[in-house]
Amino acid sequence: MLSQINIGERVKEWLLGIGVSDDLTSVMRDVTDFLIMLIVITVIYYIIRYGVLKVIRRITHRTSSTWDDALYNNKVFHKGALIVPPMLFNMLAPYTLTEFPTFMYWIMLLNRIVLVWSVIASINRFLDALYDIYQGYEVSKSRPVKGYLQVLKIIMYLIGIIIFISLLFDKSPIYLLGGLGAFSAVLLLIFKDSILGLVAGVQISANDMVRQGDWIVMPKAGADGDVIEISLTTVKVQNWDKSITMIPTYSLVSDSFANWRGMEESGGRRIKRSVNIDMNSVKFCTQEMLEKFRKIDIIKNYIDEKQKELTEHNIRENIDDSILVNGRRQTNIGVFRIYLSEYLKRNENINQDMTMLVRQLQPGESGIPIEIYVFSKIQAWSSYEDVQSDIFDHVLASVPEFELRVFQNPTGIDFQKVLS
């Protein structure tokens, strides 16, 4: 204790020796003790800040672990150093300024408020460091904790406010807690979004609905991109145009949205696209057409086996070959579908273990849609689009080889050909 330091007493003795009154010497002694205390506390604080913290920084930089870096980078130690001065002041100040009780009361009150603020600030930084440490683990992608930490911060600030009010009015915190029931409705209104976000966060985490890094689509909110942050009240989505959409956390529970994580984990990304064939170009295959198709390697065996099957059937049923519609015959569009199936089976970018269809859809005013329904092994957007484009580049170029035509509405050049 500073009262045990004889500097104040020596000052008093010296003042008495030169004829200063006893009351004034007592005041001068208290002021001297108070100033010495402030100097000592200031020196200790700067030793911690520029000495101890410097040593801690060197240690954290030399270690291979990341948790100490998270503590240092989030300034946990810096905020912790701020607790030391008010704690020392709270212990030593009562032994000074005994001649100024009113001033001492208010300065001690201010010091306790500063101490409470310093503790809250340190805890806040510590929670931030915990979040950074947790983000370094793989489980953080499936179990986000930012919302829970934000709830802890809210509770911590509420406790700080209660303590602050109790200090200001010199009332026990328990006395103030007893009166919170009267303000419960107001608190529910103020923290409505936080409460809804907390409940939604628990549901999202428990049901594994959304993880950080998931690609989600929520047309109602205008969101189509990757989830980059899940907090207590909002989910931050970075859209493909690099814009940011903020979605209330509880909206992910109350409204519908699409999560593409299942596609990413399945090992394939769906390609579902069709090309329309002009119905006027569909016809039975002639012998000349079949000979031409036999030269296409991937369907050569199919042409031979299918033609043998149809010939045997027609002979067995005594079919009149002079009429094309009699019996069973191959068509150019049917051979084209088989060709596309065989082509896709040989495409190394297509997942052969997942659904693979080449089918004919309902004919309409735009022709006969031939739809390709397969899954690409490549899921990355740009590469996936390259695979899809390469397939349909080949499809469109192959159509004329089967004496088929792709349907499209007439253009100006078509009308010019008719008129010329």
Question: What's the helix and strand layout?
Answer:
Blueprint: H1 7-17, H2 22-62, H3 67-73, H4 76-81, H5 84-92, H6 101-135, H7 146-169, H8 173-178, H9 184-190, H10 192-207, E1 215-218, E2 223-230, E3 234-239, E4 244-248, H11 251-254, E5 258-259, H12 261-266, E6 269-277, H13 287-294, H14 300-316, H15 332-345, E7 357-360, E8 368-376, H16 381-398, H17 412-419
Antiparallel strand pairs: 1-2, 1-5, 2-3, 3-4, 6-8, 7-8
Helix pairs in contact: 1-2, 2-5, 3-6, 5-6, 6-7
Task: Tell me about this structure.
By secondary structure, this protein is α+β, with helices and mostly antiparallel strands. The chain folds into three domains: 2-196, no CATH class; 204-259, SH3 type barrels (Roll); 269-419, Alpha-Beta Plaits (2-Layer Sandwich), CATH 3.30.70. 56% of the residues lie in helices and 11% in strands. The protein contains 17 helices and eight strands. It has helices spanning 7-17, 22-62, 67-73, 76-81, 84-92, 101-135, 146-169, 173-178, 184-190, 192-207, 251-254, 261-266, 287-294, 300-316, 332-345, 381-398, 412-419; strands spanning 215-218, 223-230, 234-239, 244-248, 258-259, 269-277, 357-360, 368-376. Strands 4-3-2-1-5 form a five-stranded antiparallel beta sheet. The longest helix is centred in the N-terminal third of the chain and has 41 residues, at 22-62. The chain is rod-shaped.
